[in-house]
Amino acid sequence: MLDAVAAEWWKLRSVRSTHVIVSVAAAFVLFVVLLAVQEAHIWDGLDAARRARFLLRPLQELGGWVAQLCLAVLGVLAATSEYRTGMVRTSLVAVSSRTRFLAAKAVVVGLTGLVVGEAVSIGCLLGTRLAVGGRPFPDQRASIAHDLPGFVASGAAVAVFALLGLALGVLLRSAAAAIVTLVLVWHVVPLLVYHLPGPWNERLGSVMLSGLPAQIAGLGADHSIYGELLPPAAAAAVLLAYAAVPLALASVALTHRDA
Amino acid sequence: MCRAGSGGSVDDVIEVRELTKRYGRTVAVDGLSFQVRPGTVTGFLGPNGAGKSTTMRVLLGLDAPSSGEALVNGGPYTALRRPLHEVGALLDAGAVHGGRRAFDHLGWLARSNGIGTKRVVEVLEQVGLAGVARKRVGGFSLGMRQRLGIAAALLGDPGVLMFDEPVNGLDPDGVRWIRGLMRALAAEGRTVLVSSHLMSEMELTADRLVVIGQGRLIADTSVRELTDRFARGVLVRSPRPEELVGVLAAAGGTVEAAPGGALSVAGLDVAEIGDRAAAHGIPLYEVTPRSASLEEAYMQLTAGSTEFGAVAS
């Protein structure tokens, strides 16, 4: 198993798309911090009444949100680049157990997603706090330790997105189809669910993937499109299921299909 | 070096038994059985669409057989723990990620089977790609990709090698190189199964031939047997044919009239015919051994089994 994991890691780090995707996610941290600097300037020019309503929060969360999409695409490409070129046959000749092959890919893609996700998510929190300095934005008065769990959960969601992308890539074997499906899960379906009649908008909105980190951290939906019905443990379980169920389906498909 | 399979009998390193593979309603391989023995280059021949690649994919555990079995070293391929140490395969040289460097492509393959990077450098040198090891595969010519695929097959120093149409896209030098390589691998006691749709190629490389058409076995034979089977006697011309017929018939030959006043002689070789004619003072204008070329033999064997043949008008 270790050999297979090491081989998958070698594969992932030896293509340009991986470097591009991780660079885009990292560049977004920089972008978010620059925007925070700009907001700090705006803050300085506001009167007390308007300062009380001036929030930093949606901006802080953008990094993790974009990283979700970037790493999901990385997960997709980890599978579909092999199907597109036919290299998957070489892979399966070298690692003849399909389950081991998929598990090794999942370990590498999941860990990459986790590391990049946490770095981006926590980087955005710390970077924006640094940028606004001591300015008491109404949503930035809590300590970093208090805000951290939400951002850690958001970083973990990036790993889940990466694994979901990998599973979709194996199931659909086409980058275009898998990425379209991902964008649906990432943004389009939550928007549609938001417009459902109540109480279904709230119920379904609570199990939308991007809305789970806030519930895991025990935060409210904060007037977002997501629901807030799940207790932290349930939200964590749903988050894991978003990776585990598609991966299980992918494993079944992979073991029963001719390569 | 003498190699034998780690399991099963030493005689049959590759064994295909009553193998059938269907894709939907298309039957790609139909009750195919054959064995491949070590220390030989076995040519796996058939027209396009005959089922050669399918058989190789089933042997490598990529496709599941509809019925029957395909065994390597006495067991199914998927049972091998570190398969590259036992079996090396070149299926499709184009099946590489163009953005990856040659060294990295072989690197991850080696790593997956616990093979060190020292061996990667070795095989790159062996196939003549050491100079472009750090170049991206996307810029490689088809011939270079074939060499890279062969390097991948050699990585684990395996006792069994399978090459699917390895000379496609190679220049004459490359074709000669791979011929020599296959002969050398077999001489080391390894088992080499090489598919081709060109008999002329196999004539120079293979010891044995497995010929299939439309998924069925047509011939499982040695190159020599096939040549002999299609031998058509010796063509003889003489200004005194009647006398010659008598002489040759007395010597045990079977003589028939051939077009253009020539004689077709079976049962005697060129030297015997010459000696007899000389002994009787009969002049000979032509003595030509006639054997169908392997190419012709192959065309006759596979006639009627080409899937994509043109319809004669």
UniProtKB/TrEMBL annotation, chain A:
<feature type="transmembrane region" description="Helical">
    <location>
        <begin position="102"/>
        <end position="128"/>
    </location>
</feature>
<feature type="transmembrane region" description="Helical">
    <location>
        <begin position="20"/>
        <end position="42"/>
    </location>
</feature>
<protein>
    <submittedName>
        <fullName>ABC transporter permease</fullName>
    </submittedName>
</protein>
<feature type="transmembrane region" description="Helical">
    <location>
        <begin position="62"/>
        <end position="81"/>
    </location>
</feature>
<feature type="transmembrane region" description="Helical">
    <location>
        <begin position="148"/>
        <end position="168"/>
    </location>
</feature>
<keyword id="KW-0472">Membrane</keyword>
<feature type="transmembrane region" description="Helical">
    <location>
        <begin position="233"/>
        <end position="254"/>
    </location>
</feature>
<keyword id="KW-0812">Transmembrane</keyword>
<feature type="transmembrane region" description="Helical">
    <location>
        <begin position="175"/>
        <end position="196"/>
    </location>
</feature>
<keyword id="KW-1133">Transmembrane helix</keyword>
